[in-house]
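Posting for a labmate who doesn't have an account.
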Amino acid sequence: MDSELLAKQILDTFDKINAENVFSKLKLSLKGENLMIAMLADIGGESTPGRLIEKLDFTAARLSAITKSLENKGLVKRIQNEEDKRSTIIALTQQGMAHYMNLRQEIVENALIIIEQLGERDVQEFLRIISRLVNIANETA
């Protein structure tokens, strides 16, 4: 098959996935506040704002707004950085960690539905291909 035609089909498929919010509809995606909570949980429960900006690809203003919202909900707190008194650390609260665990459980339950519908073989093939895509993206970055 023609490589340019395949490239177009790949782009069309990604466009369709994005346009139809496939991962959101399947409740497999994390955005905004939930993405920040997941990142904090994955990196040990606390981080400097700079590290979060880098990892999440947020602007400082967006990180600040999300942090303030999460603070108001009791999910994160700002604490003084003991290593550098001029800066702060953003940390998950116990309530924030419980929220993350609930999100994670919901995503796992939705993934189980997908596995049941696709079948184990197709899921394994999907994961193999996604893993290769990640490796290729990391090599070309």
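Reply:
Got it, the structure tokens are right above this. The beta strands are 46-47, 76-80, 88-92.
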